[in-house]
Amino acid sequence: MPTTKPAKVTIIHPDLGIGGAERLIIDVALALQSRGHPVTVYTSHRDKSHCFEEARDGTLDVRVRGNTVFPAHVGGRFYVLMAILRQLHLTVDLLKEIGTTTTEDVEEIFIVDQVPACVPFLKSFGRGKRQRTLFYCHFPDQLLARRDEGGSLLQAVKGAYRYPFDWFEGWAISASDKVVANSRFTRGVVTGVFGKAKLGELSVVYPCVDTAAGGGGEGEKLWGGKKILLSVNRFERKKDLALAIRAYHGLGEEKRRGTRLVVAGGYDNRVQENVQYHRELDELATGLGLQTATSKTVISALSIPDSIDVLFLLSVPTAFRDTLLLQSKLLLYTPINEHFGIVPVEAMRAGVPVLASNTGGPLETIVEGETGWLRDAKVDADWTAVMDNVLYGMEQEELDRMSAAAKQRVEREFSLTAMGEKLEQEIEQMLSRERRPFHGVQQILALLALVGVVLSVAVALLLRLF
């Protein structure tokens, strides 16, 4: 039961797509809303055909702001700059809206993730003595930027371009009243990058899954009861989906008979990497002698020939993904140093054992030999061996024991209730203390000037190109 007086909660997230960060933000909103807190989600982009159900069906109050002046990118470049400018535009609209509804004594909580540009402005220009801002850190953006592309000159230019944004990221996050991370792994990385002195004591709030969802019956067996090995992740190279294909091929033709590898996940035609990587994976599989098929709808997926070894499912609907999980023998989670990784938790909720890289977040979610296995992602044979064991070596009684243990662990550590309780603890702590000091108005003015200069340079370069 809720222990905190209901606070007005405003969540700010840049793009409500169907990735792990978006799933987490939706769950944060659901967890707090279910505990009596009025929640509003602000975003600069929501495509109702490419977002989670709760973001479009009225379950949550979602408002799109900051999307009418600045594009998401310019010629496939300047994503970071545009994300900051779009969020600043959103913040202006937000401050106008809450200025007419918020009074000094209202307990108002802002929860921000991914892009911290709004945090200093909320701190400096927001109203109310009972206003607090929590920044949820998935991973430092500066560590996600690709700096090794091109020659040495291009890398130097990219480094110079990124420098002010890297500084800005730490400065903006430091304006938060509280910073939390999605795992102990991420907490260690964040502390190492920005320093404990700048951010204060970081807590860990694990992402969650709704344990009341995704637990229905299996329904009719898919593809005549084939044994399904499932990979769920975005079509991005850093997710290393190729490992699943290579390890599956390692089973050999005889042991692959009666099985199917399903590679499902987030796919957006607007994202060039998604398109290219899907093509690369298909070429890898066919080059290994595996028969492949690609489906964009459930109907086409269910009607593929029996001879298909590897099925690529692009942006699979949630309901069908849940059915896949319930009928899978094993979930393959291939990324190295994943910050948290919600998919293994979703699989354990369904009672499916997980095979994952022995790095990053999965070290905190998967218990070796009890709810799954942790293996070196650079050794394909180790992954093949686990697949072989699950498909042909383990007794059903042992698999049932792992299934029960997985469900219990999710209920205890990663449920919507567990997340709601932890978030309320963080809110209580913020409200019980004075706001963290931040004297950043002059810095904000300097930042606006800097953004103006960078934007001018970007426009000048584009004019030269065109």
From TrEMBL:
It is an enzyme of class 2 (transferase). Residues 224-408 form the Glycosyl transferase family domain. Residues 18-212 form the Glycosyltransferase subfamily 4-like N-terminal domain. It is found in: Endoplasmic reticulum membrane. GO terms for cellular component: endoplasmic reticulum membrane. It holds the Pfam family Glyco_transf_4. InterPro entries: ALG2, Glyco_trans_1, Glyco_trans_4-like_N. Pathway: Protein modification; protein glycosylation. Its main location: endoplasmic reticulum. The chain crosses the membrane at residues 444-463. Its EC number is 2.4.1.132, 2.4.1.257. It comes from the Eukaryota. One of its GO terms (molecular function) is GDP-Man:Man(2)GlcNAc(2)-PP-Dol alpha-1,6-mannosyltransferase activity. Keywords: Endoplasmic reticulum, Glycoprotein, Glycosyltransferase, Membrane, Transferase, Transmembrane, Transmembrane helix. Belongs to the glycosyltransferase group 1 family. Glycosyltransferase 4 subfamily. This is Alpha-1,3/1,6-mannosyltransferase ALG2.
